[in-house]
Design brief:
110 residues; four-stranded antiparallel sheet
Amino acid sequence: SEPAQPTAPSASGPPAPARAATSAALPGLNSLPSDEARTAFVNEFTPAAPHKAFAVSPSGAWAWKSGYGANESVMQRAIAECNLKRTPYTPPCEVINLDGQWIALASREP
């Protein structure tokens, strides 16, 4: 029989380091509540203008805002939009990413 032919670049080729850089830059991506939220985070939130916030709720709701003049303002707007989408009587939304920096959720602290 013939030896197997490689079908993908070796691990030392360019694609592997690119994947490593992406996962290192987005350590909390898997914590987002849905595939739709992850897609929006990568394709819309990540390239958006500074002063941007991504908020989520344990109920699965999520929202993001960008382009406001101050972090406090963009955080409030992202939380407000997310809270409109969350299931009634579930924990409120919290910002998990501000200007590309992951933030620990207060609801997950002991």
